[in-house]
Structures are given as structure tokens and as C-alpha cells.
Design goal:
- This protein has about 140 residues and is mainly α.
- About 60% of the residues lie in helices and about 0% in strands.
- The protein has one domain.
- The chain is built from five helices and no strands.
- The chain is elongated and about 50 Å long.
């Protein structure tokens, strides 16, 4: 099997932005559920890498099982980044601009989404820093 280089952050961001639904014509609940689905998929991929592949399965963008190799861990982290970035895009951009955002959510729910958006930004930043500091199998350039 030929060696492949890790994807750059720019490449991963482009993949994350290629999410097909850009219309914002669906119900607000749909986008909230999608954000949670992307977050859970990203978390499952991260858990799989930190547990040495114990979770198994086919989670996240691109699927594929983790066989425990360094390249698989790198691919899982790349897929996790994509899933987290898609969730963050929904929470930071799409949901606040949805036509029902002001009327379909209570003030408390909107405040919670604001808090989640701050956490998303911090988590993505932390993920970048952590990946660079522990770049035995994955390096971003």
C-alpha cells in the first residue's frame, strides 16, 4: 500500500464545506439534529482513536474501520475534524441565520447555542494544537 500524506487543514476545511445542503429551506429542527449527528460522529471517531480502535464500527465522513495502525488513527482524526467542522458550521452560521431562529427557539435555547458555538470554536482550536503537539501519525501543514 503506497504511503499517503495527511490532508492539510485547508483540504479538510474544503471537505467540511462541501456539505450538500446549502439552501436553509428545511425546518430549524432538521439543522439542530444534523449538528448533533455531526458532533456525535466526530466524538465517536475521536473516542475510537483514543481507545485504540476499541469502538470499531463505521462512523463519520468516509466510513472505514480502524485497524489500529497509525495511518488509520490519522484518517479517523481527519474524519473527526470534518464532522466537528460541519457541526460548528451549522451552529455558528446556518442555524443563527435560519428564518425561524428568532421565533422557533426560546431565549434560553439561543443562549445555549451561543455557548455551544464558543465551545465549538475552542474545541476546534484545541484539536489543532493537540494534533500538532502529538504529530506522530498526523501532521497539518
Amino acid at each position: 500500500m503506497p504511503a499517503t500524506r495527511p490532508a492539510t487543514i485547508s483540504e479538510l476545511a474544503a471537505i467540511a464545506q462541501s456539505d450538500p445542503d446549502t439552501t436553509n429551506n428545511l425546518e430549524l429542527k432538521h439543522y439542530l439534529k444534523r449538528a448533533e449527528t455531526h458532533r456525535k460522529a466526530g466524538q465517536a471517531l475521536v473516542n475510537r482513536t483514543t481507545k485504540g480502535g476499541a469502538a470499531g464500527g463505521n462512523a463519520g465522513a468516509g466510513g472505514g474501520g480502524n485497524t489500529g495502525g497509525a495511518a488509520d488513527v490519522g484518517l479517523d482524526l481527519e474524519r473527526a475534524f470534518i464532522e466537528y467542522a460541519r457541526a460548528a458550521t451549522l451552529i455558528l452560521e446556518k442555524i443563527p441565520s435560519h428564518r425561524d431562529y428568532g421565533t422557533g427557539l426560546t431565549t434560553e435555547q439561543r443562549n445555549n447555542l451561543t455557548l455551544v458555538s464558543v465551545v465549538c470554536r475552542f474545541a476546534l482550536f484545541y484539536h489543532f494544537i493537540w494534533s500538532r503537539g502529538n504529530s506522530t501519525s498526523l501532521s497539518f501543514s
